[in-house]
Structures are given as C-alpha cells and as structure tokens.
Records
---
Amino acid sequence: MKAYFMNPVLNKELKLRFRSGKTFVGILFYLLALTLLMVALMYVLRTSSPSGFFKPQESRLMFMFLAFFQLGLVLFITPGLTGGVISSERERQTLSILLTTTQSSFTIVIGKLLSSISYLVLLILASLPIYSFVFLFGGISPTQLAQVFFFSLFTMLVIGSFGVLFSTLIRKTIVSMVTTYSVALFIVAGTAVISLILFQIADIYAVATPKKVPSVYFSAMFNPGIVLADVFEPTVSEQIKEITGIKFPIWAAHLITYCIVIVLSLTISVRNLRANMKKGS
C-alpha cells in the first residue's frame, strides 16, 4: 500500500512543488487574508450586538461563514490544480517517457492526483489554528470542526478525480480545465438550481394534492453546499425527509455516491492512460 501512495511520481512532484519559496509565501498570504476576514467578522458582529459582546451564536455564524468560504476555495482552486496533470505531460511530450518507467498506470494517476491537491491540503491544514481560535468562543462542537475539515478534503478529492479523468481523456489542457470547472460549477450551482425548482414545484402541488417528491432528494444529495449546511442545521435534512419521504441521511448518500464516482473516475483514468499513448501522444 505504501508503494502505491508514496511512489517516485509523487515524491518528485512534491519536491518540485514545495521546493520553491513561492509556495510558502502563498500560504502566508492565505492565512493573513483568512485572519483579517475573521477579525473583520468579529468586529462587525460585536458592534452590531446590543450587548457589545461576542456571543456563542455569533461564533457559530462566523464558523459557518469560514466553512463555506473554505468550500468555495476548494471548488475554485482544485480544477485548476488537477485539470492538466496528465494533459500537460502529453503537451510537453514527457508522458511517453513517464510511461516507459516501471511505474504502473495506477501509481502514476494516484501520484499525480495526490501531488496536485497536496498544496490545497496544506492550505486547509494550515488554517486549522484559525478555526480553533473561533472554536474557543463556543457555539460549535469538536465534531462539527472535524466534519467540516473532512468534508473539505473529501470534496477536494471528488473534484480532483474529475480533473484527472478529463486530463486523461482530453488531450488539450485548456479544454480539460474548462471541462473540470464546468462540472464543478454544475455540482454547486446546477444541482442547487434544480433542487430549488423541484422544491418550489413540490411546494406548489403540496397545497392541492400533498405527496412526496423523491426527485428533490436525488438532486440535493449531489450538492456539497446543501450537505455542508446539514452539518450546522439538522433542520435541512428534516425538511428534505418531509418533502421526499426518504429517511436515509443525505450526507450518507452524498458520501456513498461520490465514493463511487471517485473509484469510477480513477479506474477510467488508469485504463485510458496507456490506451491514449497507443494513439500517439
């Protein structure tokens, strides 16, 4: 197992990525921006409070804001990091050299995926002390803190698997990145719009002929924003149960569905990596 996840491809990519000082300068500016954002939110919430104190409810609100900010960061940066990991090698005409090594297609794909998202993983882990500072004011539990970070890492892996898939299937890096960004946009905005439309239709028809609408559940379970909201507001899942009649937790359906997507995406990438070489790189 260690040979698969700590292979020469991953080692080389990590050394190249973290050798430059620009990497750590980027982390510094990200943490500074996140700290300034947190301080600004604390100031606004404290000054708008009648008592003039920072309450646990306001700490929870600020934590929710930071959690969704981090989710947006993952959805915005991951496609750019993973959308060209294979196609860029093909354009530089170095993919054929990489495939002549003793490394299997699986280790190459996994190495490229993990190395491409490693920088974003480091950003998220580096921001943990800032989230812990918010945690000290109360209003959130350690379980919610762990859930938010696990969910961010899982979403990163989902989008990253799409990026590797399109980078393997599509020969042009620009086209691959645009496709990956389009899928990420659909997962967030597209499924949200579809869920909202289905919810409104169900709400309209419920007045005349009350009935369950399962389609709302199957569109909402693909949306990471809805699932993240369920972490903070259990009423979200209760409303979905009431509308759809499906009692299975939406977060569990989200995890199971995207775990299958990750496995399928990586499997297709592995199978097509050398198949594309036969056509010429």
---
Amino acid sequence: MDLTNALDRIEEIHAQIAKGEVFRGYRPLPVAVAGAIGLLAGWLQPRLLASGDDGTAFLWYWLVVAALNGVLIGGVVGVAHVRERDPFARRHTRRVVGQFVPCLAAGAAVSLGLPALDPGLVRLLPGIWALLLGLGIFASRPYLARATGWVALFFLLAGTALLAFPTADLARLGTLHGAVFGVGLLAAAVVLYLDLPRVDRGE
C-alpha cells in the first residue's frame, strides 16, 4: 500500500470515528441568544421598516440579523477551534462546520439572485431560508445529538408552510420569519444543553 492510499485510509477511519463522537462546538448559550435575537427582530421589523417597502429594506434587515447571529455562533466555534490543541478535534470541527457550508452558500446565492430577477420574490426568501437551515442541520446530524433531527424537521415544515401560504404583507412575513427562526434556534439550544455531559451542566 503506497503512502497516498495509507493516508486515505487514515482519513476514512478518522471520518468514521468522528461520526461516533457528538460534536459539542455549537454551544447552547450563543444559539439561545441567536434565537432570542430572531424573535426580537421579528417583533421590531414592522416598527422599524416603512410600510411601503418594496422588499429591499426587508431583505437587508434580515441579512444583517442573519450575519449577526452567524458571527455570534460561528465566533464561538471559531475561537474554540483556534484554541484547540488536538489536531483530531480541529479536523472534527472543520468537518462538521463544512456540512453547513453548501447551505450557507445556497442561501447567499438565492438572497442575491432572486431579488435581482424580481424584487417581489423577496417574499419567498424566509421559506427558502428555513428549508436551507433545516437541510444544513440534517447534513450535520451524524455529528450532533440525535434530537437535532427534530429541530431540522421543524425548519423544513415551517419553510414549506411559508412557501405554501405566501403573504404579500412584509410586516406579517417578518413576524412569522422571526418566530420560525427564534423558536427553532431556542429548541436547538435546549437540545444542545440537554446533551451536554452533566459536569458541563453543573450537575
């Protein structure tokens, strides 16, 4: 067996071992804070944005909220990754986070592409965002607590409902969008907390 094949085999073994270990880089507190931000943003949006918005302000408002939450959750994971000394643990983090990258890229593409085709298509984005987040969680599920599958299912069902029952009222849509992401992320935080070892929960 040459060196390349040996390295490939080692990488396969690492991948199988990683699937047997629950990834704990996503911390309950920042995920819960992100959920609270989602609920607050949904409540604030009708009060902050003009009623005559054509969808542009709506889009950028929620992109800023998403970026804020991404920095919050991703920052915690990134700092832990930088501080981690174990190369296997660092590789494990990159592998798990990598499951989310295609969904994030797809979300960015549709967020910029759909409004460019027709500003009215902005109303479809909350449903698409929820579907993509659900798919991202499902993709990461082999490395996370099993109950995260229910969180992913919630986002998929909520995204489907938002697309199946569209509304032209951006204020109402923003409230629904904030509720979906807020409740979903808070549920994810509960799952992450309950999956922590007892010593980490202070028990």
